[in-house]
Amino acid sequence: MLEPLRRNKFLILGRAGLDLYADPPGCHIEDALSFRAALGGSAANIAVAISRQGGACSLFGAVSDDAVGRFTLKALAGYGVDTRHVRTVGGEARNTLAVVETRNENCQSVIYRNGAADFEVTAADAAAIDYGALGAVIVTGTALAREPSRSANMKVLQLARQVGVAIVMDVDYRPYSWASQAEAQDVCGRAAALCDIIVGNDEEFAVLAGGEDSLAFAAQMAREAGRIAVHKMGGRGCVTFAGGQSIETPVFEVKALKPTGAGDGFMGGLMSGLAAGAPLPGALRRGAATAAMVVTRVGCAPAMPDADEVQAFLQQRMS
Q1: What is the architecture, at CATH level 2, of domain 10-318?
Q2: Could you read off the pLDDT of 167-179 as tens digits, one per residue?
């Protein structure tokens, strides 16, 4: 399951967009004097996190055929993310926009997702990918919320599985993207059945479980087909179920500026650790370290640390 990851070549499925951060840091959106632009979107953030730590990343998605779409493509390329599988779409489709605060308490974010361009990827786009060159595919759950993106991303998972590529899911449940929680449970459950590693927080595993005990459900998912299930619990760290055992990984205590970006950083650090051949507990610590560093910095994609920074952080905290 983990061996393909060591190729350190990733395809990330999902959205990339524009984040506007209220400036100066600490202010409310309504009191901002200006806004700082940055690349955003969970899939883009994960791709940047992995790229910054030395992995080769491609993004599978779509952007709008306008200035914001061009900003997004330029920002992705600037972080070293391959955009050959990001299609430009015209018409009324628009990139996601998030207006966000850099505040740790009562952090407000306003998300614009009407007619989202990233939902416009198609099965034909999925069929054009060379899966044999990949080590892993990471799907973010939001990419499954609407058609034609849902069918396109399910096709990616099926084709990747046929050639033995590792498949990872960040459940990434955003209620505003789905028609209902029941729909999310059904669709994400079918995608999870194709995955080797599933990462989610308490709410996200609860959605997969249909309201049952989320921790017990994560353990059950890990027992099925030898999967790894990472159950994130915010400030209490995470519990990972793998090989009939559970691994507890605490958070690293830091002075956080804001809560956003931690989950994307965690995924990026975890994948980078596994790609480097680290044992699962060590890779989980790398994920926790990446998340801890991200919340001390402004932005999400711009806040992702490189491999040297993560290593220095771990050496300092683990010594």
Answers
A1: 3-Layer(aba) Sandwich (3.40)
A2: 999 999 999 999 9
